[in-house]
Amino acid sequence: MDGYYAWMLVATAFVLVMTVPALALFYGGMTRSRSVLNMMMMSFVAFAVVGISFVLWGWSEGWGGDGVGNYNGKLIANPFDHFGLHDISWGNYIYVLFQLTFAAITAALISGAIADRVKLSSWLVFLPVWVTLCYYPIAHNVWAGGWLSKHFVALDYAGGTVVHINAGIAGLVLAIIIGPRVGFKRDPMKPHNLTLTMLGAGLLWFGWFGFNVGSIVFTPDALSAPGKFSSQFYGETGVTFMNTTVATMAAMLGWLAMERVLHGKATSLGAASGIVAGLVAITPSCGSVNLVGALAIGALAGIACAWAVGLKYKFGLDDSLDVVGVHLVGGIVGTLMIGFVGTVTSPQGVDGLFPVGGNGIFYGGNGTLLGHQAMAVLFTLVWSGVLTTIIGLAIKYTIGWRIDPDAEVDGIDSDQHGETAYDFGGHGGGSLSGSGASLGAAAVATSVSTSKEGALA
Amino acid sequence: MKQITAVVKPFKLDDVKAALEVLGVQGLTVSEVQGFGRQRGHTEVYRGAEYTVDFVPKVRVDVVVADGDADKLVQAIVEAARTGKIGDGKVWVTPVESIVRVRTGERDADAL
User: Fold this and answer.
1) Cβ contact (<8 Å) for B45 and A310?
2) Interval B8-60: pLDDT, tens
3) Which is nearest to B69 in space by CA: B96, B45, B42, B51?
4) Looking at chain A, which residue has its C-alpha nearest residue B54?
């Protein structure tokens, strides 16, 4: 038990790294140079806002008890029963925090679909409302013994439905409601710094080991005896770590092969994207497939997502950084593939979590598993799709989503944050004005030398 | 006096500089520029979206010389910068009315 507890402390910090800074870097590199700070800020503030809502009412609404769930069989749990972690024991805090990091990255993922054009204030309003209406209820239904899991036993180890399909459909809906960037399909909007994107993708892969491998849930049997506990812990974490690794490698190669065929070149952005597509697809499936299944899921996700990211131009949809093409498509591939390559010899099979009917179709199952997986996908698509539409329209017709079109062309960084990301020009650093003069006596020396430096430059 | 301006491939800059030094040129100005000629740009593909990059990076070398030196220096630049492939750039010569060396106030031929 001590080993597990130590691992969860570390795994939770791993998943924090996925949002701050991995996702921020991955997305930030893909935007134009005049929007990179805003893009990164959308992830940073998402972590803070969602995290606070999580400890106030998110845990109570989603999990609703002092354990891994309350198994009430209903669509949601009561947000006020454990408001502010009331009656939650300290021993459960690390599990609460682990789940908090999942809610935060899910909301942050959506930002890629609406890059470069949204007011920070509107994003800050959207975040707590969206997790309250979409994330916590779906987590409750899939993971914490809610309505869906009572009626359709579906396998989602670490969040193919709850995290990726949920964020993907929300990104699709918001990209439609908010509309394309000024100049979409006319002006060049190519990534400004792919080294940041590759660094972010690598860090995401690193953090994802906490995400997937930390998602182990022990069976009542394992909790009854230390020997059984150790044997589930060692065995299951080995398999989920292995599957997370090999699926991601296969997806990177799958994406590169696909774009070599379609566009003639294997690109660095393709490698980074393939990594994320593979991680997304193995998220729901890392505990329910074997090595061959993981390789197949990864390769298929890489190929499918590489093809899917091209579709937005046909539909005129400005899903700026391909939240739909990578997270929605990858999430659906991973969740449904369990219905084909899921096997009862996997950790979740051994744990007795498969529905009656057992194996995936390729291992002799009768299709029940695939049916349940499809139900979980459909449930998430409909729930999140409908409620995100309502939230998106409500914001559009009240406080509004978009920054001024002129400001968008000039760059959202200076409009929303009063900053620019890069100062490469060797000339005219500017001089300290306004706020510099009001710093007070103690700061005078610094202030003077700074303006001198500015003048010399 | 003449100003020689050469727009050449960036990796040829060192060759051009060396050729000019051999012929006694004592100073020049270099800037990074972008543009296109018959070479046009190239295409890049990001996640399936094809971008035409019209402007390719070049290096611009400016050097001011005495009238009599211009022809042989242009010849030296052309030989140093040539690869034989499209996109090698251009060299042109313009007349210069006067020059002042900032430090001493020397003018024209003395300021070269």
Assistant:
1) no
2) 999 999 999 999 999 999 999 999 999 998 878 888 889 988 888 888 999 99
3) B96
4) A188
- Which of B45, B49, B51 comes nearest A313 by C-beta? B49
Distance separating alpha carbons of residues A385 and A393, to the nearest angstrom: 12
Q: How far is A111 from chain B (nearest CA, A)?
A: 18
Task: Give SS3 for B80.
Answer: helix
ipTM: 0.77
Residue A327 CA to residue A278 CA, distance in Å, equals 10
Distance (Å) from the alpha carbon of B55 to chain A's nearest alpha carbon: 13
Mention every residue, 6+ apart, whose C-beta is less than 8 A from residue A450. Answer: A432, A436
Kindly state the DSSP code that residue B10 receives in the 8-state scheme. Answer: G
How many whole angstroms separate alpha carbon A366 and alpha carbon A360?
7
Spatial distance between the Cα atoms of B50 and A136, rounded to a whole number of angstroms: 39
Q: Compute mean pLDDT per 10 residues along chain A, 457 residues long, and list them.
A: 94 98 98 97 98 98 92 94 96 96 98 97 98 98 95 95 98 98 90 97 98 96 92 96 98 97 95 98 98 98 96 93 97 98 95 90 94 97 98 98 96 96 72 57 43 41
Q: pTM of the prediction?
A: 0.89
Q: Residue B77's CB: how many other CB atoms inside 10 A? A: 25
> Cβ–Cβ of B45/A267 closer than 8 Å?
yes
At a CB cut-off of 8 Å and minimum separation 6, what does A428 contact?
A457
Q: What are phi and psi of A421, to 5 degrees?
A: -75, -35
